[in-house]
Amino acid sequence: MKASPRTAQSIARSIADYKLKPFNFPEGFGISIDTREQESIFGARIPKGLMLHSKTLKNGDYSVTGLENYFAVEKKQISDLLSYVTTERELTVEKMKRFAKMEWVGLIIVVGRESELYQPYTYSNISPEVVRQSLASFEVRYNIHCYVGNKENCCRWFVDRAIRFFKMKKEL
After folding, report:
1. Residue 73's CB: how many other CB atoms inside 10 A?
2. 10 Å Cβ neighbour count for 25?
3. Taking CA 134 as the corner, what is the angle to CA 130 and CA 138, rounded to the nearest 5 degrees?
């Protein structure tokens, strides 16, 4: 017996009804944000119960408080990323070598849609292929976990991994 196709309206309704659970922060968990970070990934919507600490970080823009030498997340917008992989390439490679010595490092690229990352850029002659290959290199050569998404999804991706890393370190 063939199942009846779902209508677009029923699919949209089921997506709207689906909500991810709120974060469950373990005792003692907090996020450190680099003092030089200009636009927080959290914006004005800081998850309830999350402790944020502003401090100068040696590596990355974000970390787990107390685990800054082991866990880092770097955040980039497309414009930052373009210079990161071209004109600032030498500095980026040095940073990646430092990151490779850490236990866990993520690179989040905040865009509206991932497809924006791989299309020709306004006011730039940089090929999207340069960006694609650079991200692949960061992941394979330096073990950097890359994530591309909108601000809300990047925030969730980062916090989920920060919580998991914190819990794993506490198990030892």
Report:
1. 27
2. 18
3. 175
Look-up of token digits 């992989």: 85
**What is the set of domains in the chain, with CATH numbers?**
26-171 (3.40.50.10130)
pTM: 0.83
C-alpha–C-alpha distance, residues 133 and 64, integer Å = 29
Give the number of other CB atoms < 10 A from CB of residue 137: 14
- The Cα–Cα gap between 131 and 110 comes to 14
Query: Could you report the per-residue pLDDT of 34-84, keeping only the tens digit for each?
Result: 999 988 998 878 888 999 999 999 999 999 999 999 999 999 998 888 888
Backbone phi, psi, residue 80, to 5°: -65, -40
Side-chain half-sphere CA neighbours of 30 within 13 A: 11
> Phi and psi for 77 in degrees, rounded to 5?
-95, 170
Q: Copy the structure tokens of residue 56.
A: 């100068």
CA distance 104 to 161: 9
d(CA 39, CA 25): 23
- Give residue 164's region: left, alpha or beta (phi > 0; psi -120 to 50): alpha
Quick one: CA dihedral 93, 66, 164, 31, positive or negative? negative
